[in-house]
Amino acid sequence: MVGSTEKTRYHLATELVYIDGDAVKDNYNAASVPIYQTATFKQSSADGSGGEYDYSRSGNPTRTAVEVHMAKIMKAERAFVVSTGMTALDVILRLVKTGQEVIAGDDLYGGTNRLLTYVSQYNGVKVHNVDTTDPKRVEEKLDPVKTRLVLLESPTNPLIKIADIRSIAARVHEICPSALVVVDNTMMSPYLQNTLELGADIEYHSGTKYLSGHHDLMAGVIGCREQSVGDQLYFVINASGSGLGPFDSWLLLRGVKTLGIRMEKQQSNAMEIAEFLEAQGLKVHYPGLASHPQYELHRSLSSGAGAVLSFETGDVGLSERIVESAKLWGISVSFGCVNSLISMPCKMSHASIPAEIRKQRHLPEDLIRLCVGIEHHEDLINDLARALETAGVQVKRG
Ligand SMILES: *Cc1c(COP(=O)(O)O)cnc(C)c1O
């Protein structure tokens, strides 16, 4: 059972807004958690003791406030906020020793792929990239002695494939009791999917995406189920100095309050757009569509389909023209922002994966990814329809 479950008294949409008054003791009852923009804290005795905080690398009240809040939202025993999503993974990877092994997906976030490659080349850690949407492929690589981490993303990005987190976690814990199941839950956000409840040991997020929601800060969030794992993670964060600064902690806390309302709107827009594209006869990858091969599995893991989808046009040149003809849709990497974005993963976010590996992993070069924002859905669809027409596609209007 997750340690702090009993603390969740309201629906998640309410918990997101409600900041527990005990998280930070503030002398003036500030309605907004203050930004403690300080590196050091004065102590009351000559032996350096006396205060709850001494140095902001080790701890800062603004950071604590967002960590306590995130632990509640993620139903984690403990949560940490660090400088970026990649830092979150870097901190977690430091739990792996030379000679141990990592099993990870083959349709991963580009930066994740890059860091895992580095670790395998410099730290003597073997990384197996397998198709995690087939639990058997994961099981084949499990080694009770060597496996340390099993790293999952679901849905994957940009192909939007689903990994059965619940069954994989159960099998990993059965076969490798000392291995940790880690899920990058950025695509779903804690609002739509709780992977600690599905059996993961650690869940992390790029806070740069949905949690903050406005592309105005970078952050990473890590939540874990067990105190002992939390202690190890804290050790690395303090030792390496990767904790999030006070101002960004404050921005993250501010952003996360609107996660529920943003996600509801972004998701309903995404559904309208997925249906529009499917009606054009295009191959659309979105777990909210009944045509998604793992529609039922996704529904069993999460409470929604999210707001990232991708589609294929069959022609790289055509895809480029569509992307460049869109106006409302900004050409940008990343997702989770209030405004809508369009990109070609193979040329942008996933360009760091060598072309031959992209091919091996069936990543279509013509794939277009849409990250849907909170605009009015009719404007988004009209803009997309116009871009398709400009690029040379005959558009059927519904
Ligand atoms: C963006 C992203 C990351 C990396 O997060 P940063 O905050 O950019 O370092 C990791 N995983 C996924 C799924 C992401 O989308």
TrEMBL record:
The modification N6-(pyridoxal phosphate)lysine is found at K209. Gene3D superfamilies: Aspartate Aminotransferase, domain 1, Type I PLP-dependent aspartate aminotransferase-like (Major domain). GO terms for molecular function: cysteine-S-conjugate beta-lyase activity; pyridoxal phosphate binding. It comes from the Eukaryota. Pfam families: Cys_Met_Meta_PP (PF01053). GO terms for cellular component: cytoplasm. Keywords: Amino-acid biosynthesis, Lyase, Methionine biosynthesis, Pyridoxal phosphate. Its cofactor is pyridoxal 5'-phosphate. One of its GO terms (biological process) is 'de novo' L-methionine biosynthetic process. It catalyses: L,L-cystathionine + H2O = L-homocysteine + pyruvate + NH4(+); an S-substituted L-cysteine + H2O = a thiol + pyruvate + NH4(+). Its EC number is 4.4.1.13. Pathway: Amino-acid biosynthesis; L-methionine biosynthesis via de novo pathway; L-homocysteine from L-cystathionine: step 1/1. InterPro entries: Cys/Met-Metab_PyrdxlP-dep_enz (IPR000277), Cys_b_lyase_euk (IPR006238), Cys_met_metab_PP (IPR054542), PyrdxlP-dep_Trfase (IPR015424), PyrdxlP-dep_Trfase_major (IPR015421), PyrdxlP-dep_Trfase_small (IPR015422). NCBIfam families: cysta_beta_ly_E. Belongs to the trans-sulfuration enzymes family. This is Cystathionine beta-lyase. It comes from Coemansia thaxteri.
